[in-house]
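Hi all, long-time lurker, first post. I run a small reading group and we've been trying to get comfortable going from sequence to structure in the token notation. Rather than ask abstract questions, I figured I'd post a concrete chain and ask someone more experienced to write out its structure so we can walk through it together at our next meeting. Sequence below, copied exactly:
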Amino acid sequence: VQLQASGGGLVQAGGSLRLSCAASRNIVRINVMGWYRQRSGKSREFVAESVRGGSTNYADSVKGRFTISRDNEKNILYLQMNSLESGDTAVYYCKAVLDDWPYWGQGTQVTVSS
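-- Answer (accepted) --
Happy to help. Here is the structure in token form:
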């Protein structure tokens, strides 16, 4: 499966962005889809995931501010990011786990100015 992330950009602290991850195939049967980020000089870290069946999980740092969702008709994974902070500045990557194999999209840069 190929993943194409988009929606990053420059935003002021307190603002919002919505990231999209378009998949090349039907995502209904993909067990786990998620977002990760990599801040400058840091390793890639978990942000949020959507599990088939409807459950979601979030990193503590984004709980209450970010919302992950899927559009199964359009085969798109979203990440709505509100109340952005400078610490959210990173390259964001989407990931899909299919048949226990991870697939990664290219990153999209999110920059939050304070």
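A couple of things your group might point at:
The chain is about 0% helix and 55% strand.
The chain has a mean pLDDT of 96.
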